[in-house]
Amino acid sequence: MVARTCSLANALGVIGERWTLVALREVLLGQRRFDQIVANTGASRDILAARLRKLVEHGVLEKVRYEEHPPRYEYLPTEAGKALRPILHGLMQWGDKYVTGGPAPTVWEHSCGAELHTTTVCAHCGEPARSGDTKLLRLGGIPQ
């Protein structure tokens, strides 16, 4: 049997642990310093430090020194981290609808002031994808 490489499983290996996406959310919202992230997430300092370290190791965040004495650091999103913004937004929308039973305060909005909604569109025609309109062609590079 040939082992499959699953992009979803690999991605979850980087961002799938508890507190990881919540910490990333804080950085994407502009909370870049460790104490700010701890205060806004409620995660323990040890766990949060481990999650942030893993995000840095995998190139999702960059740890940058902003003060020499004493040495202090902040976390900045890389291109890979910024690319996760719509994923976080989509998960938040899903959670609002199916887990918490109602919308949370708007977190991301367009420059026009309207709330953003995450959707998947066809790369060719630009039409929104609906459940019955799609099929899986390959999983992890292996044709189905």
Structure description:
- Helices cover 40% and strands 12% of the residues.
- The protein has 144 residues and is of the alpha+beta class.
- The strands form two sheets. The chain has a two-stranded antiparallel sheet with strand order 1-2.
- Strand 3 (138-139) and strand 4 form a beta hairpin.
- It is globular and about 55 Å long.
- The model has no long low-confidence stretch (mean pLDDT 86).
Write the layout of secondary structure elements.
Elements: H1 7-15, H2 20-28, H3 34-41, H4 45-57, E1 61-67, E2 72-77, H5 79-83, H6 85-98, E3 138-139, E4 142-143
Antiparallel strand pairs: 1-2, 3-4
Short summary:
This protein has 144 residues and is an alpha+beta fold.
Keyword list:
single chain, 144 residues, alpha+beta, Arc Repressor Mutant, subunit A, two-stranded antiparallel ribbon, 40% helix
At the first level of CATH, the class is Mainly Alpha
> Uncertain regions: pLDDT < 50 for 5+ in a row?
none
Q: The CATH topology is what?
A: Arc Repressor Mutant, subunit A
The biggest sheet, with number of strands, parallel, antiparallel or mixed sense and barrel status, is:
2 strands, antiparallel
Strand order, main sheet: write it out.
1-2
**Overall strand count:** 4
- Determine the CATH superfamily: Winged helix-like DNA-binding domain superfamily/Winged helix DNA-binding domain
Rg, alpha carbons: 18 Å
How many domains? The number is 1
C-alpha geometry: globular
Q: Count every helix, treating DSSP H or I runs of 4 or more residues as helices.
A: 6
Range of strand content: 5-15%
Element-by-element helix/strand order: HHHHEEHHEE
Task: Write the CATH architecture name.
Answer: Orthogonal Bundle
